[in-house]
What does this fold into?
Amino acid sequence: MSYAYRVPFIDRGAELKVLEREYGASGFSLVVVYGRRRVGKTRLLREFINQHGGVYYVASELMYPQIVQEFSRAVYDSLGYLPRGRDLVEILEELAGLGSRTVVVIDEFQYVIEAEPSLPSRLQCSIDGVLKGVGSCMCFAALQYRFREEAPWVQGASLRKENRHH
Ligand SMILES: Nc1ncnc2c1ncn2[C@@H]1O[C@H](COP(=O)(O)OP(=O)(O)O)[C@@H](O)[C@H]1O
Ligand SMILES: [Mg+2]
It folds into this structure.
């Protein structure tokens, strides 16, 4: 899906360069984008999807099975592929095995973790094991800044407002 914005996209050259570098690399890649509300996380990732295609999913405060159901639906709508897995990690493993470089954005990721607290550690396990070895997939998790302190597993780039003042 492509998004047309009235306000032109500005001043994220440095961030896009990092994302392009990851996109150009092989193997599985997880990029965590975090920052305060309204700092531009969603816009950055949607612009990236406009360029490369991929799945964009925004989580909300739902129970985990429903999040998985919605995510599967988003995958189907964008890729025409209906995942069989009933868990986000399983589905990412499926997508990583598809062959092409699939971009997957999970926005408001904090809601997914609230609904399924075991997810970060299971995702980490899968990255170290299965995902590292299979095909290629680039996954973005965008979450709000306050969560950074509560999530020591996050090693990603923060999106700061100051970056826009060049
Ligand atoms: N680089 C940018 N250039 C122009 N407008 C932007 C840019 N980044 C964000 N915006 C605009 O600012 C608003 C907030 O951005 P958004 O991506 O929703 O923030 P977040 O997801 O971090 O809460 C949106 O209206 C968005 O279109
Ligand atoms: Mg957002």
In short: The chain has one domain: 28-151.
